[in-house]
Amino acid sequence: MIRKHSATLHGHRTSFSLEDEFWDELKRIAAQRQMSLAGLIARIDDERPPESNLSSALRVYVLRWLRGEREPAPTDH
């Protein structure tokens, strides 16, 4: 089932739609990376191509993570 979710990214509220399986996997990835879910979503949003929407970028991130195409642990900026 696809559900609407919302998050505050850089002080602005945004919403996106994700299937429950992708949402659950994002939460697991955030826990594995020892970062907040909001922080992970913000990072994915910051790094997505301008022509991509956030929902698609989140799905692609999860797919790449599950394929083992993992990025290094986040650093403080």
Automatic annotation (TrEMBL):
It comes from the Bacteria. Residues 3-66 form the Ribbon-helix-helix domain. Pfam families: RHH_4 (PF13467). This is Aryl-sulfate sulfotransferase. It comes from Pseudorhizobium endolithicum.
